[in-house]
């Protein structure tokens, strides 16, 4: 890993974590379709299950194909270790359940992927994990949301769906002042555009279903441990700092000081809760990483072209893409994402919800579906789909009124995309 880290992003995206298969010489990482793995001896089996020795035991806790993906994404993000998991949603769930117990509190950005917001509300209602929402673009209010009972901060690096870039270093400073971990969903940025650990993030996660997988084939997630938060002796986080009696009294923060959160996520999140990622989805996501450095610049340049075009269109009232120079979030783009703020943004139409529905019904190149970050361009109406469970007043405050459409810009020719939108916007 240390020698790999000397290489640049493109080389790491292709090679990190991988080597020719020792049994066959296969250069592509093999797809290990096995739910169990033979042990050399009874003692080796006991040591692996007891966390005294690394190795594979049962596919729910890890797989050699997934291990290469974990090493690669951890390397690209600058983390110490990673855990592949069944979806981005389950990655967030495992992070929260590893950090929090019933009655605990945390602060979350109020501008997030709709599924994340829905999950957080459900966990509060059913499991008493209290969340306080705050606008991550208003740092004073965000700071005030943190109390002595807060045990984590959760944000997105680039906000889904508005595309706003968050001031990661400033929010990291808030987390450090209160000695709590900062959790960053880096799905829209990918490590190609932003590496949140460099700005103070303690835990990073992704939906692999988006830009990393990149082709609309995969449902998957990954958790990356920065290895920097000091969990040792901190009774607020018992899974990290207290003995696990069923594992011989092991204390993860003492045994694994630089990888403790990743180990806890694997042992509790994977072995106990069970949302493992299939080897086949790991294989597809791993393949996707090999072209990430080629796809992201095209995504960004296309998004910039489409956003500029829509901003000048007579049927469009507003475009929320901070890559545009007149956008209020543009200064943070220059600081954090000089290569561009991703490829997901919203547009507000002058004709209201009726115009949005006509647009979505009339596009021919864009696909009407709920994903983002694919090779193909996608379009959807957040207010009635991805963010429908938000209270109406919160949707409006987040810029997701009924007249707003979300676009995820793919790899097609930008002129074809703008032409498609033009014909679909005609009365």
TrEMBL record:
Going by the UniProt record, its keywords in alphabetical order are: Pyridoxal phosphate, Transferase
Instruction: Give this protein's Gene Ontology molecular function annotations.
Output: cysteine synthase activity; O-acetylhomoserine aminocarboxypropyltransferase activity; pyridoxal phosphate binding
The record's annotation in Gene3D superfamilies points to: Aspartate Aminotransferase, domain 1, Type I PLP-dependent aspartate aminotransferase-like (Major domain)
User: Its Gene Ontology biological processes?
Assistant: cysteine biosynthetic process from serine; L-homocysteine biosynthetic process; transsulfuration
Entry annotated with the keyword Transcription: no
Its cellular-component GO annotations read: cytoplasm
What cofactors does this protein use?
pyridoxal 5'-phosphate
Establish whether keyword Transferase is in the entry.
yes
> Which family is annotated?
Belongs to the trans-sulfuration enzymes family.
* Protein name, per record: OAH/OAS sulfhydrylase
Question: What species was this sequence derived from?
Answer: Pseudochelatococcus contaminans
């Amino acid at each position: 890993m240390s020698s790999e880290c000397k290489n640049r992003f493109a080389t790491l995206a292709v090679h990190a974590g991988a080597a020719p298969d020792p049994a066959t010489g296969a250069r592509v990482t093999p797809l290990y379709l096995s739910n169990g793995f033979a042990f050399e001896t009874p003692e080796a089996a006991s040591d692996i299950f007891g966390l005294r020795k690394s190795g594979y035991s049962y596919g729910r806790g890890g797989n050699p194909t997934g291990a290469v993906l974990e090493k690669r994404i951890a390397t690209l993000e600058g983390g110490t270790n990673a855990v592949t998991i069944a979806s981005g949603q389950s990655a967030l769930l495992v992070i929260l359940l590893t950090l929090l117990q019933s009655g605990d509190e945390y602060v979350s950005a109020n501008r997030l992927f709709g599924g994340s917001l829905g999950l957080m509300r459900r966990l509060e209602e059913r499991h008493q994990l209290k969340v306080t929402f705050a606008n991550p673009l208003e740092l004073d209010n965000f700071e005030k949301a943190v109390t002595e009972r807060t045990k984590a901060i959760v944000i997105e690096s680039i906000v889904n769906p508005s595309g706003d870039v968050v001031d990661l270093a400033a929010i990291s400073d808030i987390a450090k002042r209160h000695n709590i971990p900062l959790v960053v969903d880096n799905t829209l940025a990918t490590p190609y555009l932003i590496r949140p650990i460099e700005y103070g993030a303690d835990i990073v996660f992704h939906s692999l279903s988006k830009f990393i997988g990149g082709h609309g084939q995969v449902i998957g997630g990954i958790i990356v441990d920065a290895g920097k938060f000091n969990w040792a002796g901190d009774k607020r986080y018992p899974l990290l700092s207290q003995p696990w009696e069923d594992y011989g009294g092991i204390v993860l923060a003492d045994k694994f000081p630089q990888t403790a959160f990743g180990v806890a996520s694997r042992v509790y999140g994977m072995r106990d809760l069970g949302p493992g990622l299939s080897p086949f989805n790991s294989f597809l996501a791993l393949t996707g990483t090999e072209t990430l450095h080629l796809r992201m610049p095209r995504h960004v340049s296309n998004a910039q072209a489409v956003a500029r075009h829509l901003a000048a269109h007579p049927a469009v009232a507003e475009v929320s893409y901070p890559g545009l120079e007149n956008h209020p979030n543009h200064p943070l783009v220059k600081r954090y994402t000089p290569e561009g703020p991703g490829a997901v943004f919203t547009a507000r139409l002058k004709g209201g919800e009726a115009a949005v529905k006509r647009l979505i019904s009339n596009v021919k190149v864009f696909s009407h579906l709920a994903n983002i970050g694919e090779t193909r361009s996608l379009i959807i109406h957040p207010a009635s789909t991805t963010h429908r469970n938000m209270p109406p007043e919160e949707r409006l405050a987040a810029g997701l009124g009924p007249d707003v459409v979300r676009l995820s810009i793919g790899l097609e020719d930008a002129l074809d995309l703008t032409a498609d939108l033009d014909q679909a916007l005609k009365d």
